[in-house]
UniProtKB/TrEMBL annotation:
Belongs to the alpha-ketoglutarate dehydrogenase family. It comes from the Bacteria. SMART domains: Transket_pyr. E1 component of the 2-oxoglutarate dehydrogenase (OGDH) complex which catalyzes the decarboxylation of 2-oxoglutarate, the first step in the conversion of 2-oxoglutarate to succinyl-CoA and CO(2). One of its GO terms (molecular function) is thiamine pyrophosphate binding. Its EC number is 1.2.4.2. It is an enzyme of class 1 (oxidoreductase). Homodimer. Part of the 2-oxoglutarate dehydrogenase (OGDH) complex composed of E1 (2-oxoglutarate dehydrogenase), E2 (dihydrolipoamide succinyltransferase) and E3 (dihydrolipoamide dehydrogenase); the complex contains multiple copies of the three enzymatic components (E1, E2 and E3). Its cofactor is thiamine diphosphate. Keywords: Glycolysis, Oxidoreductase, Thiamine pyrophosphate. Pfam families: 2-oxogl_dehyd_N, E1_dh, OxoGdeHyase_C, Transket_pyr. This is 2-oxoglutarate dehydrogenase E1 component. InterPro entries: 2-oxogl_dehyd_N, 2oxoglutarate_DH_E1, DH_E1, KGD_C_sf, ODO-1/KGD_C, THDP-binding, Transketolase-like_Pyr-bd.
Length: 930
């Protein structure tokens, strides 16, 4: 007993028969820390703190064992022990649950589930005790109490939920679990349907195994219960009002889900195996069959549900935020702000959910304002092996692969995959919890993998003991069929008929799922207006002066009593002067006006980044903060017909998951301008998988259109290697087939027209924008109202100094901030025979416009490409061939920093020397680097 407890014990109110009273308080405190007097909150909390969080309940229980005073009534003390035991089963009963179909897992010792731990013995089993908060009659013999606890918490389902801090959620789960007492048997018709789905799951795998020997399919054999799980989930949630379900999953079982859940024609799948599919678009590169997505509309007892399986690369869990973002967009489109009509479902592997950080990032986003989807339904296909040969001891540092879900206090239901009725019960329970509390839930489907990682592997080479057991193990379908035959619900001939009927359906090649005809399908986003459009199609992007001034007045009129910060107040006053034509337009004004015009035209806006409301460089102020009471105001939202169509969020400190989320959102909503902004451009490094696997190649692989915009602050201003470069070269290397746009706007008006062009053109392509830093307040980087009214986005900007073409000896092409350094130095030196030309869109490269510039300065002897980035970085190597094609035989040279393994130097003085040198070389004849 701890010193503190000894001290408390010596107090009079803990002596004698009061021990039972203390135990009652203790149980109340476990259920709800605020349900007991404050003094007792302190006592129990201090005990927990002394024990450490991970062993709190055990330590407290051990401490209370020492509370029994010599003269205490034995029955009072034993009653307290019974209550402690009930709680122990709730907390740790899952460790004794029968979860492993192989029977190989060594279950840990759980001393606090033993009678003796609570000063009880077998002689007490017939004694009747108060059951406390157990879902049971008020008094029962101890043997019956233990029986209820064991059936509830130690059967085919092991539940972890006592880590949940919300008392209502814990009690809801307790009532549902303890009320069932481990009896998971559904009605007869549901049991027969369950067998039918298991037959389909097994039948699909056997069919593929016999027909396409040796081809990769990532079989579901060993985890067939996932198919009836999906069937039950879709039918149950469909009856509760879910109208769309967005699913993300990696390889394991994907082909089975495509055919047996989403209703893909088996004939189409078999054609993919045979490689005889004719490409409908020669620009499509395609993807392997177990990465492909699909969508369909299926019938449920509650109506039609639209199912969408997201396309998924081999980076496994990276699809998670994409699915969540797509679900959020669909909820917004439906006005489903309570998150009840669209449900995201994610299927994980046991090694992946424990090993990949994007899982944690998405869970961390799950309840955040800008990213909430009402909870994601997680299914873990737990093969107990990882992905190839890994031992769980090497794959994670936790008992379960699902520990990460505890960070958001999600309930976790571990269930034996060879008990399909328990699987269905856990599924329905989890779905109801998610609907009730709008939180993530986890089903850990503990199963096995009958074959290797893929069908060409030999798993016994690394897992001999496991595969000795698996070879002798009957499939779950056979086990369940035998069970139903033993119960007299079906005979052997009907079981065999189910198998042959399913094979016949596969042979016919037609859908095996009850799909609805096209005329009954739910209306989703119509992408037809954006298909087969010409890339260079022009569109008017200007706005009338009256509209600009009217919108500016609405956004800069501050309600009485709304106290702005003085610096923000000056910015608002400046914008009023800009709208009046009294001072040049800055970047913040032009960008905001682009949004305002699009919003009033009916488009949505979603601007997300780590400092997007204010703007990293204190320039945007799309969200205004009241200095008097801390309230916020979003003037842009006030322009919309529905304020919820405008979302401006300062996101959590994540790149990978947030960018994936925004990509998913943009693929599901072409009518909203979706922007992800990095605090500094190089922060995008943390999201490279999203860029490579989705943004750059999603259209080529899967035909997925996406209008996502990425803002990446870029510019060499002496801030070191990590705050200079947005790694332009990486994006340029990914450019091909007009897959993305890469722009470097150098003027506020360019930003204005570029953003409006992105939405007003009738096609959707990702837009990568290298946004400025110091230019945001550069006196030379301003625009006029007429530039917004009459202008358009210029792919190339000719020299505004208008040097005489016949006297021009050198043409210097560049992009971004370096132009202003060059122009300033040229003016200072009085040079008049060099033309400085900005290429504002680096991809698709504007060859015609660049060639026209070269021809304009036909007398020039040299063409220079000048950049701030090192030679092996930036745009040079990716546009050199374009420039050469445009020079017409003139000398083409590079000017910039020499090649480097680092984006920039760390010393400001060295930076200045390098910058001065490259500017000088660009303006000095013959000094360019070859």
């Amino acid at each position: 007993m701890t010193d503190y407890l000894q001290e408390q014990y010596r107090a009079s109110h803990l002596s004698g028969g009061n021990a039972a009273y203390v135990e009652e308080l203790y149980e109340q405190w476990l259920d709800d820390p605020f349900a007991v007097p404050e003094h007792w909150q302190q006592v129990f909390s201090r005990l927990g703190a002394e024990a450490g969080d991970d062993t709190r309940h055990l330590a407290i229980a051990e401490s209370f064992r020492g509370l029994k005073p010599a003269g205490a009534a034995a029955e009072d003390y034993k009653q307290a022990g019974v209550l402690r035991m009930i709680n122990a089963y709730r907390v740790r009963g899952h460790k004794r649950a029968h979860l492993d179909p192989l029977g190989l897992s060594e279950r840990p010792q759980v001393p606090d589930l033993e009678l003796s731990f609570h000063s009880l013995s077998e002689s007490d089993l017939r004694t009747s005790f108060h059951t406390g908060s157990l879902a049971a009659p008020d008094h029962l013999p101890l043997a019956e109490i233990i029986d209820i606890c064991q059936k509830t918490y130690c059967g085919s389902i092991g539940v972890e939920y006592m880590h949940i801090g919300d008392t209502e959620q814990r009690q809801w789960l307790q009532r549902r679990l303890e009320g069932t007492r481990g009896n998971y048997t559904p009605p007869k018709e549901d049991r027969l349907r369950l067998l039918e789905k298991l037959t389909a799951a097994e039948g699909m795998e056997k069919y593929l195994h016999s027909k396409y020997v040796g081809q990769k399919r990532f079989s579901l054999e060993g985890g067939e219960s996932m198919i009836p799980l999906f069937d039950a989930l879709i039918r149950h949630t469909g009856s509760q009002g879910v109208r769309e379900m967005v699913i993300g999953m990696a390889h394991r079982g994907r082909l089975n889900v495509l055919v047996n859940v989403l209703g893909k024609r088996p004939g189409d799948l078999f054609a993919e195996f045979e490689g005889v599919i004719a490409k409908d678009d020669p620009t499509r590169s395609g993807d392997v069959k177990y990465h492909m997505g699909f969508s369909s509309d299926v019938r449920t007892p509650g109506g039609v549900v639209h199912l969408a399986l997201a396309f998924n690369p081999s980076h496994l869990e990276i699809v998670n935020p994409v699915v969540a973002g797509s679900a959020r967009a669909r909820q917004s489109r439906l006005g489903d702000h309570e998150h009840e009509q669209v449900m995201p479902v994610l299927v994980h592997g046991d090694a992946a959910i424990a090993g990949q950080g994007v899982v944690m990032e998405l869970l961390n986003m799950s309840q955040a304002r800008g990213f909430a989807v009402g909870g994601t339904f997680h299914i873990v296909v737990n093969n107990q092996v990882g992905f190839t040969t890994s031992n769980p001891l090497d794959a994670r540092s936790t008992l379960y692969c699902t520990e990460v879900a505890k960070m958001v206090q999600a309930p976790i239901l571990h269930v034996n995959g060879d008990d399909p009725e328990a699987v269905i019960y856990a599924t329905l329970l989890a779905a109801d919890f998610r609907r009730e509390f709008k939180k993530d839930v986890v089903i850990d489907l503990v199963c096995y993998r009958r074959h290797g990682h893929n069908e060409a592997d030999e798993p016994a080479a690394t897992q001999p003991r496991m595969y000795q057991v698996i070879r002798k193990l009957d499939p779950v379908r056979k086990k369940y069929a035998d069970r139903l035959m033993a119960d007299g619900l079906i005979d052997k001939s009907k079981v065999e008929a189910l198998q042959s009927e399913y094979r016949d359906k596969l042979d016919a090649g037609e859908p095996v799922v009850d799909l609805v005809p096209d005329e009954e399908a739910l209306v989703t986003v119509d992408w037809q207006p954006y298909l087969d459009r010409e890339w260079r199609q022009d569109v008017a992007t200007g706005m009338s002066l009256d509209s600009i001034r009217s919108l500016s007045e609405q956004m800069t009129t501050i309600p009485e009593g709304f106290g702005l910060h003085k610096q923000v107040e000056r910015i608002i006053e400046s914008r009023q002067k800009m709208a009046a034509g009294e001072q040049p337009l800055d970047w913040g004004f032009a960008e905001t006006m682009a949004y305002a015009g699009l919003i009033t035209d009916g488009h949505g806006l979603r601007l997300v980044g780590q400092d997007s409301g204010r703007g990293t460089f204190f320039h945007r102020h799309a969200v205004l903060h009241n200095q008097n009471d801390g309230s916020n105001r979003v003037p842009l939202a006030e322009l919309a017909d529905d304020p919820k169509k405008v979302t401006i969020i300062d996101s959590l400190l994540s790149e990978e998951a947030v960018l994936g989320f925004e990509y998913g959102y943009a693929t599901a909503d072409p009518g909203t301008l979706v922007i992800w902004e990095a605090q500094f451009g190089d922060f995008v490094n943390g999201a490279q998988v999203v860029i490579d696997q989705f943004i750059a190649s999603g259209e080529a692989k899967w035909g997925r259109l996406c209008g996502l915009v990425m803002f990446l602050p870029h510019g060499y201003e002496g801030q070191g290697p990590e705050h200079s470069s947005a790694r332009l070269e990486r994006f340029m290397q990914l450019c091909s087939g007009n897959n993305i746009q890469v722009c470097v706007p150098s003027l506020p008006s360019q930003m204005f027209h570029m953003l409006r062009r992105q939405m007003l053109r009738p096609f959707r392509k990702p837009l990568i924008v290298l946004t400025p830093k110091s230019l945001l307040r550069h006196k030379a980087s301003t625009s006029s109202l007429s530039d917004l009214v009459d202008g358009q986005f210029q792919l190339v900007i000719d020299d505004p100094a208008k040097p005489e073409p016949s006297k021009t000896k050198r043409v210097v092409f560049c992009a971004g901030k370096v132009y202003f350094d060059l122009a300033s130095e040229r003016d200072e030196q009085g040079i008049d025979d060099i033309a400085l030309v900005r290429v504002e869109q680096l991809y698709p490269f504007p060859r015609e416009e660049v060639q026209a510039i070269v021809e304009r300065y036909g007398k020039a002897e040299e063409v220079i490409w000048c950049q701030e980035e090192p030679m092996n970085q930036g745009a040079w190597f990716q546009i050199r061939h374009h420039l050469q094609a445009c020079t017409g035989g003139k000398s083409l040279k590079y000017v910039g920093r020499e090649g480097s393994s680092s984006p920039a130097v760390g010393y400001y003085q060295v930076h200045l020397e390098q910058q001065k040198k490259l500017v000088s070389q660009a303006l000095t004849h013959g000094e360019g680097l070859a």
